[in-house]
Structures are given as C-alpha cells and as structure tokens.
Specification:
This protein is an alpha+beta fold. The chain contains three helices and four strands; from the N terminus they run βαββααβ.
C-alpha cells in the first residue's frame, strides 16, 4: 500500500528541522519503506514541511512509521496527514 504522508512544520521551527535532519534521514534509510520523499518549501525556498511516499503493508504501519519519525518526536510538525495514494505516472 502506498501512503502519502504530508506534514506541515510549525511556524518558526526551521532550526528544529535542521537539528533533526540527520536522524530523520537515517530513519528513512533504516526502515526501508520510503519510496520517495522531499521537503515542502515556503515562498522563500526554505523547508517548511515534508512529502513522503511510504510503501507499507497498511495504514496502521504508516501511522506507526510517522509516529516514530525523529521529526515528529522532536515536535516539528503542526499537522500530519496520511492518505492512501495510487501511483499513475512515473
């Protein structure tokens, strides 16, 4: 199952993102369930959120992955949405 994880950072939390980026990237590598990922950018080109495509067994696994993400544990996100996604192009 593919799940789009869309997370929006809390305002003025860029430093939280920067401070936890290495742990977040290591988590992505360790878990092996991220098909695609990248930061969302604000109007200035600064990182302001995340778009992550998870390839997991079910929504419960996606929710567990999101809960254990170092960015989430650090309190970076204002909102997180997980949506079942169907790849059509690419």
């Amino acid at each position: 199952m593919l799940i789009a994880l869309i997370a929006r950072d809390k305002p003025d939390h860029l430093q939280t993102r920067v401070d936890n980026r290495a742990a977040h990237l290591a988590y992505i590598e360790e878990t092996g369930v991220v098909a695609e990922a990248g930061p969302l950018l604000d109007q200035n080109g600064d990182m302001a959120g995340s778009l992550i495509i998870l390839d997991v067994e079910d929504m419960t696994a996606g929710e567990a992955w999101a809960a254990a993400d170092p960015y989430n544990k650090a309190g970076l996100f204002e909102a997180v949405e997980l949506i079942t996604w169907k790849k059509v192009i690419g």
